[in-house]
Amino acid sequence: MTAGLRAAFRCFAGCPGEHPLTRAIYTCPRCGGLLAVAHDMDALRRTSGEAWRALFSSRGYGAPAPYASGVWSKREWVAPEVTDADVVSTVEGRTPLCPAPRLAAELGIAELAVKQSGTSHTGSFKDLGMTVLVSVVRQALREGAAQVRAIACASTGDTSAALAGYGAIAGLPVVVLLPRGLVSTAQLVQPLAHGAKVLALDTDFDGCMAIIKELAARGLVYLANSMNPLRIEGQKTVAFEIAEQRGWDVPDWVVLPSGNLGNAAALHAGFAMMADLGVTSRLPRLCVAQAARANPMVTAFKAGASAVSPMRAGETLATAIRIGNPVSAPRAMAALAAMRGVAEEATEDELAEAAARADRAGLYTCPHTGVALACAKKLRAEGVIGPRESVVVVSTASGLKFTEFKLAYHEGRAADVTSRLANAPIALPPDVERVAEAIAALGPSA
Hints:
Helices cover about 40% and strands about 15% of the residues. It is of the alpha/beta class. Helix 8 (about 230-235) crosses helix 10. The longest helix has 18 residues, at about 125-145. The protein is globular, with a radius of gyration of 22 Å. The N and C termini lie far apart (about 55 Å).
């Protein structure tokens, strides 16, 4: 199916010209703006929506490499010119879409499901974009189309883990810039374990990003952040999976925790592509959910602004989305408009409470998923989400990466948070009667 299909970089703002995906380029040479990956849609339209659905559904876990991957099972729509030999994959994607009826009832939402993107190889949705980026870089290096000293990223944790993991598989050098002291221990350990060169800088993510962009401009590194549209191509497969898991239907709403805003652009790209090719019939509405202390998109949306203005992000428990100057803001603004979307925020108390309630319902969420759940609750209370509408919340990372966040909540140590559902351990002597009394105090089962 890939024969004759192609994709190339084009200016997101519409400047003429295109560039091969194997070229190390991150902005439009004419206007300096963002790039996007453009597919030959006329060629893709020669296959019917029904035929695409049948093809993708036929590529299950038992499919030959690389089609067992949730990303590469849709390779015609992602990066059709990457060869099988160059694909770097961990069979990423294919993450569960989990119904959450107990939590739905608490939030007053008719139908709620959580897309558990954190069950991927390195524990976050970032794997989906990184498999595409590292595969293209591997092909570019083999063909002599690019020469770089290392693949590099700025990160609040998850991007560095994904890049380091996929770089290790491919045998490519990786450099990551992290804001010192602002990532969880689990997130710091991952790139170290994979052998990446980890540089901890005394700044925040935006400061790290500014340095990475300058290093890439000098040709010293290949830029692996979501400013690079190759990342968007892999991440848009979340939209494909949500639709496929719903019988090729889309929900009424998708609520997405958002920091650098690449994922908002990715979801729009995915849902729009399916609708264009007749695989689905409509787009869902989108909520870009941000922490109140790192909310440039929310600020722009509520002010009716046409562009996102940078801010200095404050300290938040949602560390992975503590970003004040999101590089994909223009793409996300376009996504919000196309999907009749909204932007909403959650305070520290709201996000921690939402995460704790989700945990009580069996989900075990990261703080960023807590942001999305808190925003979904607000939108339902305000009537923006209707009483009979379906909602998918995208969980972007594994809660296992954020044990410090969980412990601080249950021990009552989380700043600006009232731990209403705190569940601290009860210390007891090794006495069966005392243990029996503690169990009896639980009361009858529900």
